[in-house]
Amino acid sequence: MLKEGLFHSSLMILLMIVTMCISLFSCQKDKSLLNDFGSYYLEKEKEFLIHSLSSVDLIDYYPEDRLYLGSTITHSGKEICLVDESGRIILSRNMKGEGPEQYISNLSCLAFSEKGNIWAMTNRHILQYDQNLNILVKFTYESSLMFNIYTPAIKFSYIHKDTNQFEITFPTNPSGSSRHQVGKSQYYNTGKLLELYDQKKGYSNEIAPVSNRRITEDFLSITKSFYAPIYFTDAKSAKLFLTGTFDNKITIYDLKSNTVVGNLDIYHGDPNAILPPTLISPQKLPSTSENWLLTPKNHKLYKLDNGLIALEYIVGVSINPNPKNVVAEILQDFFHSKLILFDQNKQISHDLTIPENGVIMTSLPGNRLLFKEVNPEREEDFSRYIIFKIMTE
């Protein structure tokens, strides 16, 4: 009996020691993670007004000429705009038409080229203009799906696989546009998030299998076409940074070698979690009193200086787990967004608060962000833009 009592006592002591070691390890891990995150914040730098009855949406910036590129929707259609740093509109013109320098389908994307020319994308053509909108390049591309963007133009993403060549490679579906098709029951197992068109080779290929993302098939069946790729490309390094609208992983692709070269875990609102993010499924998500699912939704990715990346995500998106029709039912507040920073290896910040009524339009040199102030309660005859710089203590 004495030996048995000593055995039980020794066993209890051993269990206590193991428990203490596990707790100490967890505390040290938590403390280490806390120390890994810098104290970042947004600091207002300056603002400017664009005086126009039609709202102007700026989506790119060319530092050499200090010009912004964007679009505005007027009675004549969607116009390409160039704006200087004071907010003065240099040029605004609708290039839709049947002329050789025009495009016949709807304008989807715009971006500056490395030399300050203007790329324009429709669902059939890629065009390049100079800053006076004289045509320089125009070619047709083929895609398995055709996308029409009726909202203001979004930023065009492309890379050069060979820096000595003019030809570009680009995604045919703009960031935020899903390739999910109603009735395609095998999309989870066979679908790809992106289709890339290679101008030099004259054909496209698909990348980023849906089944490799951190979502379950039943969650995809609820979100349907709301599950879409969110990405940007780095033209200089020929890399693609990609996540999904509902996802907790950023995947880095080297498009020259067509390989995955890294993954970044996303900790929405909980950067000190000990365990890495897991698959997103309906069973693991919290819900509202009406039994709608609650989840963050990734909105945009931004390229910053020195290899930094910013992810903007919408907080508290509600999803009906039992939609009554084939279209997903989702409620989201675009003004309830947060910002997370990453380097090329990991998340490096807690959530950054985005200014009230501020919509991020694009990133600027110097780790700055261009915000557009949007007031849904009143119409104004100008667009207010504010530049914020990402700071650290």
Automatic annotation (TrEMBL):
- Give the top-rank taxon of the lineage listed in the UniProt record for this protein: Bacteria
Q: Which PROSITE patterns match?
A: PROKAR_LIPOPROTEIN
- Per UniProt, which keywords does this protein have? Membrane, Transmembrane, Transmembrane helix
List the transmembrane segments: 6-25
InterPro entries in UniProt: Quino_amine_DH_bsu
**What SUPFAM superfamilies is this protein classified in?**
YVTN repeat-like/Quinoprotein amine dehydrogenase
Name of the protein = DUF4221 domain-containing protein
Organism of origin is Belliella marina
